[in-house]
Design brief:
The structure is a single chain. The protein is an all-alpha fold and 86 residues long. It has a domain of 57 residues. It is 64% helix and 0% strand. The protein is built from four helices and no strands. The N and C termini lie far apart (40 Å).
């Protein structure tokens, strides 16, 4: 029987999410600079960037190992923060 270290599995998922969020953060950085250049609102962009930064602080404890393995960045964004949120 194979045993899986839950903590190591969760950390591996967090590392994958960090890598997956890099491209969207770069795109949002570009959108933010363009918005500043034309005097457009940046609040929505800032919120999206913060959500991507916070994705690695989401609670993964309720997920099965199978769910952890298949967790997408989009699905992770909808999880509760560690501690249950605000």
């Amino acid at each position: 029987m194979i045993k899986v270290n839950r903590a190591m599995a969760e950390e591996a998922v967090r590392n994958r999410l960090r890598a997956e969020r890099a491209a969207p953060l770069l795109e949002l950085d570009t959108a933010y600079i363009r918005a500043l250049e034309v005097g457009a609102a940046t609040g929505g962009i800032v919120e999206q960037k913060q959500a991507l930064r916070d994705v690695t602080e989401k609670s993964l404890s309720a997920l099965t190992l199978e769910q952890l393995g298949g967790l997408s960045l989009e699905a992770a964004l909808s999880l509760e923060p560690v501690g249950g949120g605000n």
